[in-house]
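Researcher: Structure for this, please.
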Amino acid sequence: MPTFTYTGVDKDGHAVKETVSADDRYAVYAQARDRGHEVDQVKEHSPFSLGSYLDIKKINYYLNRVSQDELVMMSRNLSSMLTAGLTATRALSVIERQSSNPRLQGVVQRVSERIKQGDAFHDALKEFPETFDNLFIAMVRAGEESGKLADALLTLSQQLERSSNLKKKIKGAMIYPAIVITVMIGIGFLMMIYVMPTIVNIFEGSDMDLPGTTQVLIATSEFVNNYTLLTIAIMLGVVGSVVYFLRTRIGRRFSSWTVVRLPVIGTMAKETNAARTARTLASLLNSGVDVIRSLEITQEVVQNVYYKEILKTARDKVEVGSPLSDVFVERSDLYPILVGEMILVGEETGQISNMLHELAVFYENEVERKTKDLSTIIEPLLMVVIGAGVGFFALALIGPIYSISGDVL
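Model: Predicted structure, token format:
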């Protein structure tokens, strides 16, 4: 007789998981009803499946990650179901069944279990810091304490969605140049292996003095052909070293300092950080989180080291009674002047969260517009880079070849 495992809840609302023998799934439901259980999911065991030897569900759990888009959907759906009158555990059960991500299913199931045991929603979320950051937890806590959890989750979903969209637009603008540069490097590598040896044979048959650029190409080609694996290892090592350096404390400071000072990109980076700061602060303050805690969470949300330091300074000054706008007005080298002035107006009128929201919308629209215009700037620059590369090869190879042809004629 086949064996089935079903999960669900008992008459007291506690989670249950039972393994039973039955002729089919209908018989499983009948047995569950006799025991007073409400079934959520039924799985049939296969005696010769790989799952009988390996915990596939646990493997899938650790192999997957919860994306920001999935958190957006989770927050929005939870808000809708809570507004409709569902309990938090019932809403989480729906989210679990709705999701196809094993990681999210496991996390939601555990959070639901802890809530049934009497833990607060935000305390249950703290068990999964790799999935729920401090912003998520703080917004949920503020919603629970104010009795407006559905509103807090809706605000959170909007915050996460705008943040996700902003990241996608910036990454999308960088994909095209990254592909072009990668292809150029690949073509150059293949030329060194397959094209240069043939041209070198032509030069070896002549006694002419080769230009320095030609000699550099010939030496590079010989090294690449003689030590191909070493060359690949060196290239990968350089890439790995750069990535490792950028993750160190000095590397993070270097990249943070460089990005905001690049032409065009620097302005976008400043406006992106301004939008992220304003959006996060507005969401937290609007949900009832105090200013000190809001600044601490926003400090963790921004990535640039120097912006983290500004927010830490702002937190320290606000804690001793200084206005929030003071630091932003002083640091107009990183935050646009409008940020400090709008926060100052918000403090004077008592509408600081609304002013921050307007700032966020303004700079998000600015960044979106500039990312669209970025392609018109990048394409000519790429053409210049490609032209310079082609010109270098032309001067280094075609010039000596013409000289050889002239001598022959």
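Researcher: Any notable elements?
Model: The beta strands are 3-9, 15-21, 38-44. Residues 352-408 form the longest helix (57 residues).
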